[in-house]
Every structure is written in C-alpha cells, then in structure tokens.
Design brief:
By secondary structure, the chain is of the alpha/beta class. The protein has helices at residues 23-31, 45-58, 79-99, 122-126, 143-151, 167-173, 220-238; strands at residues 7-12, 34-39, 65-69, 107-112, 134-138, 162-166, 181-185, 200-206, 214-219, 243-249. The chain starts with 6 loop residues before the first strand and ends with a strand.
C-alpha cells in the first residue's frame, strides 16, 4: 500500500523535562496533522505517556495521534546487519501507520528523545520510506547537554577536543587515541569497567531532566561499582533507564 507525499518533522524533545521543548518544537507539534508515538512494551509505557503529556501541554486542541509498536532488534547476523534490518522494520511500521491514516496527513511528526541529530537514527529511517517524505529536523536538548548542565561542567577541557562514542566501541576499541575527554552514550553494559581507571574522573547521569534524575561523580576507580549498582536498582524500579556519562583523563605531562 502506498501513501501520498507528506512532510515529516523530527522534533527533539530533550531528555524528559517538558521544559526542554523549544518554541520551534512546540509550533511543529501544533502544525502536525498526525503525530506518531512508538510503543516499547508495558515496562516502558511512561515514555509514551511523556510524549502524550508534551503534546497535550502545547496543543490548544486534541492532537491526532497514531501509535506503532517498535520491532525487536536481532543480533544473530552481527551488529551492523542487525541494525540495518531493524531500521528497515521500523520504517515499515512508520509506513503502515501513516498509510492507514484517513484522511491522509500532509504533515507528520515524530517526537524524538533528545535530539534527532546526535546518535539517533530517525533521519536514516526516514530515508527508507517510499515515497520519501520531505524531512525537517527540529533540534532539541541533547543528553550530553543535559549531563554537563546537571553537573555544572563544560564538556571540554581548556583548548582540548573531546569525543562522543558508544559503550560498544569503548569496549571493543578502548579509549580513543589523542583524546582526554570522552562522552559515552548507548551503554547498557557499563563499559567504563573495561578501561584502566587510573587518573580518570567520571560524571554519570540517568533520567536527566526528570524528577527521577540521578547524578554521580568522582574518580572512576571509586565510582565504577557504585554506578553499576545504582543503575541496576534504578532500571529494576522503573523498568527502563536512559543514562550517559563523561570521562576525563588527567593530561600526562
């Protein structure tokens, strides 16, 4: 089944605090003919609830919302193949959901946790749709911004670069060469345990911007197990967790 051409707006909504939504994002929500909301299972229902609260907060009339289920990601053919197949499956769910809408929407929106431009695949998924929509991205507060703001620190050291990477790459490749500051995202395995903690400081945060926000900071050798235990308790309590951390090594002079 095909659907008519439409505009797709990917709206960054920050890390859980409705106040993170920009005026541009609020205007894009109000202008949408259809808003897609993902469902990730009963244990993550509050992620959909939060999106509904944001929509209700900025709209002066009931919004038209359509829900879709996120398919599970397979890893039996390798990480990259699994991600490619997963993105194809998500694009198919978007297509089916939009095609089922009657009347056909001219402007579709998705509310993206954090910012669609930083470690988010929604633009790549949108490129899989056929016909391909006209895509617009509305930036939001990133998890990295929320983390450094919560700890009241700058992301970089004076005159020094920093890197943003994933837990998987940190485990497989180690600390990036020539960089003293790294921000690590998408790390469900607490990969900071795989590196030498000597001289490393860590700033960790979960549920950033939300009432449940948790912040921990200190030398990695003192904080590693505390973060692991805190993260496990929080995930068990909520059924899900979103966290990020920044690590900085002392410069060797």
């Amino acid at each position: 089944m095909t659907h008519a051409s439409f505009d797709l707006t990917l709206i960054g909504i920050g890390t859980g605090n409705p106040d993170h939504l920009t005026e541009q994002g609020a205007r894009a929500i109000r202008q949408a003919d259809l808003i897609l909301i993902p469902r990730k299972g009963a244990d993550k229902a509050d992620l959909a609830d939060l999106r509904e609260q944001i929509i209700a907060r900025v709209c002066d009339r009931p919004a038209r919302i359509a829900y879709f289920d996120i398919p599970k990601r397979r890893a039996d053919d390798g990480y990259l193949r699994g991600v490619e197949d997963w993105h194809d499956a998500i694009a198919a769910r978007w297509h089916e959901t939009i095609a089922a809408a009657d009347p056909a929407p001219a402007r579709v929106a998705l509310l993206i946790w954090g910012d669609p431009s930083l470690y988010d695949s929604s633009p790549r998924i949108a490129a899989r749709l056929d016909p391909r929509p006209r895509v617009r991205v509305v930036p939001g507060i990133t998890a990295l911004q929320a983390l450094t703001a919560a700890h009241a620190i700058p992301v970089n050291d004076i005159g020094a670069p920093f890197a943003v990477t994933t837990g998987r790459r940190l485990r497989e490749e180690g600390w990036p060469a020539g960089i003293d500051t790294i921000a690590v995202m998408l790390d469900g395995d607490c990969s900071f345990r795989a590196i030498d903690p000597e001289g490393v400081e860590i700033w960790w945060g979960a549920f950033l911007g939300m009432e449940e926000e948790i912040l921990l900071h200190g030398p990695l050798q003192d904080m590693a197990e505390r973060i692991v235990e805190t993260r496990a308790r929080a995930r068990a309590r909520h059924g899900w967790i979103m966290d990020i951390y920044l690590m900085r090594r002392r410069r060797r002079g």
